[in-house]
Write a structure and sequence with these properties.
The complex is a heterodimer of chains A (114) and B (112). Chain A is 0% helix and 46% strand. Chain A has strands spanning 5-7, 10-13, 19-24, 31-37, 43-50, 65-69, 75-79, 88-95, 104-105, 109-113. In chain A, strands 2, 4, 5, 8, 9 and 10 form a 6-stranded mixed β-sheet that branches. In chain A, strand 8 (88-95) and strand 9 (104-105) form a beta hairpin. By secondary structure, chain B is mainly β. Helices cover 0% and strands 53% of the residues of chain B. Chain B has strands spanning 5-7, 10-14, 19-24, 31-37, 44-49, 55-58, 61-65, 71-76, 85-92, 100-102, 106-111. Classes of the chains: A mainly beta (114), B mainly beta (112).
């Protein structure tokens, strides 16, 4: 596709369940980011992948959060044992990975933990 | 931790008015981006500024990067209802770092 694609668009889950969020970046973009946007807050950095390098996981809020990127393309963000405070919009972005960062975002996944 | 402070947090103006949104930090950024986000969508890149003192114009939008590369402003002339949205600034800390720090945004409403 032409843009960054995220699925699902919306996810409602029960507290304690695991969820997987998917991101399909723009073809050829080597850099991929996950951000979290809570109501009234800015974008909170979660994790960054660049090519084959080890990901920067410094933004993951707890060990319940993990992410992987297979084959340098599609990425999955997994949240285990979800809590109500995990409710937010999870945004994925990709970038060429060279020169200045110019991020192209997906539409996000709105996660609601009930 | 690098922080970007945006002001004002909320802005409601009449169509045709001018406005300025500010993005300030105590840190130096190698580049700074402005994004616009509409409800239910991801942020969309408007502009990237990289040189201290740089001014870029995009139709009725004027973006300026501070001389010290610590702050930026977005000025909209003759605002239109289509300008309504959340304006976010984001800074890259160093060339090659590929880390973007975002401000909390300015929510703009332009009333017809």
């Amino acid at each position: 596709g032409a843009g960054v694609s995220q699925s699902p668009s919306n996810k409602v889950t029960e507290k304690g369940k695991d969820v997987e969020l998917r991101c399909d970046p723009i073809s050829g973009h080597t850099a991929l980011y996950w951000y979290r946007q809570s109501l009234g807050q800015g974008l909170e950095f979660l994790i960054y992948f660049q090519g084959n390098s080890a990901p920067d996981k410094s933004g993951l809020p707890s060990d319940r959060f993990s992410a992987e990127r297979t084959g340098g393309s599609v990425s999955t963000l997994t949240i285990q044992r979800t809590q109500q405070e995990d409710s937010a919009v999870y945004l994925c972005a990709s970038s060429l990975g060279s020169g200045w960062v110019e991020a192209f975002f997906g539409q996000g996944t709105r996660l609601t933990v009930v | 931790t690098q922080l970007l402070e945006q002001s004002p947090q909320f802005l409601s103006i009449q169509e045709g008015e001018n406005l300025t949104v500010y993005c300030n930090s105590s840190s130096v950024f190698s580049s700074l981006q402005w994004y616009r986000q509409e409800p239910g969508e991801g942020p969309v890149l408007l502009v990237t500024v990289v040189t201290g003192g740089e001014v870029k114009k995009l139709k009725r939008l004027t973006f300026q990067f501070g001389d010290a590369r610590k702050d930026s402003s977005l000025h909209i002339t003759a605002a239109q209802p289509g300008d309504t949205g959340l304006y976010l600034c984001a800074g890259e800390s160093g060339a090659g770092s590929y880390q973007l720090t975002f401000g909390k945004g300015t929510k703009l409403s332009v009333i017809p």
